[in-house]
Specification:
alpha/beta, Rossmann fold, seven-stranded parallel sheet, five-stranded parallel sheet, 17 strands, globular, binds flavin-adenine dinucleotide
Amino acid sequence: MNRKVLILVETREGKVRNVSLESLSAAKQVANDGEIIAAIFEADSEQYLTTLTQHGADNIYLIKNEQLQTFTTDGYVQAFCQVIKEVKPDVIFLGHTAIGKDIAPRVATRLGWGLISDVTHVAVEGNDILFTRPIYAGKAFEVKKVVEGKIFATIRPNNLPIGEIDFEKTVKSTDYSVEIQDIRTTVKEVIRKSTGGVDLSEANVIVSGGRGVKGEEGFILLKELADVLGGAIGASRGACDADYCDYSLQIGQTGKVVTPDLYIACGISGAIQHVAGMSNSKVIVAINKDPEAPIFQVADYGIVGDLFEVLPLLTEEFKKLKYATV
Ligand SMILES: Cc1cc2nc3c(=O)[nH]c(=O)nc-3n(C[C@H](O)[C@H](O)[C@H](O)COP(=O)(O)OP(=O)(O)OC[C@H]3O[C@@H](n4cnc5c(N)ncnc54)[C@H](O)[C@@H]3O)c2cc1C
């Protein structure tokens, strides 16, 4: 079955976010020989045309309106609803990001559709599209399909593969003006909390600290390891509550949900609310001095020991591997 698929593109610091490229790859899977349309709201979005085309977009809607220069819930919801009415897609994908989580339920409500959120796997079986998503804080997965109406889903970052690049594909774009009314909020300034230059939700490696890290200084040890591995720093709520680090680093049920290739949990007990945010990581390493700590139940590798002794040794060994002459 051929389908028309619409995806909403997000960018960060002059680059298309990985989750949008992952959504394009899912779009290719479900479109078959149908059409893939990428909608992008940011100013100067012409710079992204080649990347989006090479990753599968057949047409890129450059959504024009001065009030879309910065994200506002009102502005993006109104604009995206107009794009959907214009494009008339069969399937719509957004990232399960702060923006996606904010606007997708509102758009679904306005248009009277259902929404499958936080999708970690997409499969096509006959005429059906099957979406896998975690439930019970990541303890189980359910597989859903839409039996009536439009197919509308948000894709969890870092779970679907980015598809192959097609260097031959011709760029096609459409300027599309939208009308925006009654924006109730204005973004005056965007202050980004730094996670060492690597976006936590898209990081391949995360070194995460808990209350066992004992203080702000303890996080310096974690940062040293993260830097060698090219990763980001994360934290448990215990560490955030104790003021060892900023809440923007919190991973878990009420923090960020992450799926890195490697998650190193240092001095984190492994409470269910923390595990909900990191249990889908591909490889989990736990460092904890308590051999009974629940984190070892979800870990692939466990180190029972004092993190203040273990971390410097690990950093040293990874440095040797990284800088070894070949
Ligand atoms: C509604 C709700 C939502 C929540 N949401 C979240 C959430 O999103 N994310 C989250 O993380 N938590 C969340 N929590 C809190 C959660 O229940 C735990 O309290 C929290 O995760 C504990 O943090 P921790 O593991 O860092 O601290 P602790 O439970 O105190 O564990 C510290 C660990 O460090 C180990 N340790 C101590 N010293 C060392 C050392 N020198 N070397 C090695 N190991 C050492 C200890 O053995 C211990 O296992 C939530 C709770 C509620 C009720």
